Structure of C2H2-type domain-containing protein:
Amino acid sequence: YICTFCNYSSVILTNVKKHIRTHTGERPYSCTVCSKRFSAKTNLNVHFRLHTGALPYECPHCKKRFNQKRNLRQHLMSHEHEYPYICFVCHKSFSTKGNRNLHMKIHSGERPFECSICNKRFNRKYSLQKHIRTHTGERPYPCTVCEKRFSSKANLNVHFRLHTGALPFECPQCRKRFNEKRSMLLHLMTHNK
C-alpha cells in the first residue's frame, strides 16, 4: 500500500491510512467528554486518561503514577541515587527510613490500624478507610458518564475504561491488551501452561 501524497509505503493498510492523515489533517477520533479530536485512536485513549484520572503506569520507587509509559520512564531517571534505604527482606529501595519502615510492616505482619466495626486490622490507614466503606456503603466516587458510584477511585478508573475502550495493560508475551491488570495477569498465566 502506497501513500497518494508521498513515497511512504507499508504492507499494512491501516499504517498507510494513519500516515495519510499527516497530510490531510483528518482527525476522525473525538473525545466524548471535551470533543477534542485526534488522528489516531491511541492518542485519543491517552488523552482520555486526563478525564478519567487513569494512571496505569506506577513508579516502583515512589508509587507515583502516570498516564503514559514515556512519562514514567522520564520520571525514573530522577530516582538515581535517591533511594538509599533498602528493605532487609525484599531489597526494595526507599528515599526515607520512615517509608522503608512502613513498607517493612508488610513483611512483619504488623497491622496497627483496626476497624472499630469488625476489628479487622490493616497495615495502612488508607486501607482501613477503604475497608470502612464496605460497612457504611459509602460510594464517594461517581462516574461522570453513567452516574454509577464507587467506593474507591481505583474501581472508578477501572469502570471508566468500559466507556473509553482504554486497554492500558499489555501482555508482555503476545502484546494482547486488557482494561484491568488482573485480567492481563490471568491471561499471562495461560502462556506458562
Notes: The longest helix spans residues 13-24. Helices lie at 13-24, 41-52, 69-76, 97-108, 125-136, 153-164, 181-191. Residues 60 and 135 are 32 Å apart (CA to CA).
